[in-house]
Amino acid sequence: MYYPIALNIERKKIVIVGGGMIATQKLRTLQGYGAYVTLISPTITDEAKTLLQALDGVWHERNFEKDDVNDAFIVFVATNNKEVNEAVSAAVNAQQLILRADDVSQGNMLNQAVVRRGALSIAVCTDGASPSLTRKLKQRLEEQFPASYDAYVSFLAQARQHILANVPRDKSRALLGRLVDEELEQYVAQGELQRAWATVHKWLDEANV
Q1: What would the pLDDT profile of 153-182 be if each residue is shown by its tens digit?
Q2: Secondary structure of 184-200 in the HEC alphabet?
Q3: How many domains does one find in the chain?
Q4: Do 45 and 132 reside in the same domain of the chain?
Q5: Signal peptide: which range, if any (predicted)?
Q6: 6 with 105, same domain?
Q7: Whole-number Å distance between alpha carbons of 19 and 79
Q8: What gap in Å lies between CA 67 and CA 62, rounded to an integer?
Q9: 123 and 83, same structural domain?
Q10: N or C: which end of the chain has fewer CB within 10 A?
Q11: Rounded CA gap, 127 and 109, in Å?
């Protein structure tokens, strides 16, 4: 069983061994997190080249060497060569995180499927039991929480700060709970931010603050 956790990988060294579709997918998931990414493979996909450039990453156009994982925070093993995969596993120490795409039981971490809407992150994982189910559940969540949730979560953050700055503590908790309101969600989804803020200010008036 894996413990679910969110990691800050900014300025952390991430090593990807492999240059095919799995490695490319890993590069997609690393966009925007500020990690130092190194990829080792004699060849890589065209998309991987583009993604690596966007990450300001490094491509070592050669086979894996054991020193490649020195000081790595996370190592993704994404080749279809078992001998290479075993060599990477042998080079990693117990303090490093490793995910082997060919056999997750040989690693100590798993990637989760993530639906991100601004500051809202919803992660799904089946501990490797069924990647297909993970993808299906992610699709359902993407439908349940549309892109408009980005603006909604941003509005909630601003409204929360406004309440905390202007409402006494003994009254703020109840008001903060009211923010998770379907009416507010609909207003923001429809781009009616003025109506959303008017509702919040109405609640403040009702609370005599």
Answers
A1: 999 999 999 999 988 888 899 999 999 999
A2: HHHHHHCCCHHHHHHHH
A3: 3
A4: no
A5: none
A6: yes
A7: 7
A8: 13
A9: no
A10: N
A11: 9
Res 131: pLDDT: 86
C-alpha–C-alpha distance, residues 123 and 7, integer Å = 13
Return the SS3 of 208.
coil
Are residues 117 and 106 part of one domain?
Answer: no
Supply the CATH number for residue 5's domain. Answer: 3.40.50.720
Return the DSSP state at 190: T
Domain that holds residue 165: 149-206
* CB 52, CB 39: distance < 8 Å: yes
Q: Which two tokens stand for residue 13?
A: 């060294």
Quick one: which of 48, 80, 149, 98 has its CA closest to 88? 98
DSSP letter (8 states) at residue 76: E
Distances (CA, A) of 107 to 5, 73, 81, 88, 104: 16, 13, 16, 11, 5
144: Cα separation from own chain's centroid: 18
First CA to last CA distance, the chain: 48
Q: Which H/E stretch holds residue 39?
A: strand 36-40
| 135 shares its domain with 161 | no
| Residue 144 backbone zone (phi > 0: left; psi -120 to 50: alpha; other: beta) | alpha
Which of 110, 126, 160 is a domain's end point?
Answer: 110
- Per-residue model confidence as pLDDT tens digits over 122-148: 999 988 888 899 999 999 999 999 998
Instruction: Kindly state whether residues 12 and 105 are assigned to the same domain.
Output: yes
Contact assessment for residue 209 and residue 166, using Cβ atoms and an 8 Å cutoff? yes
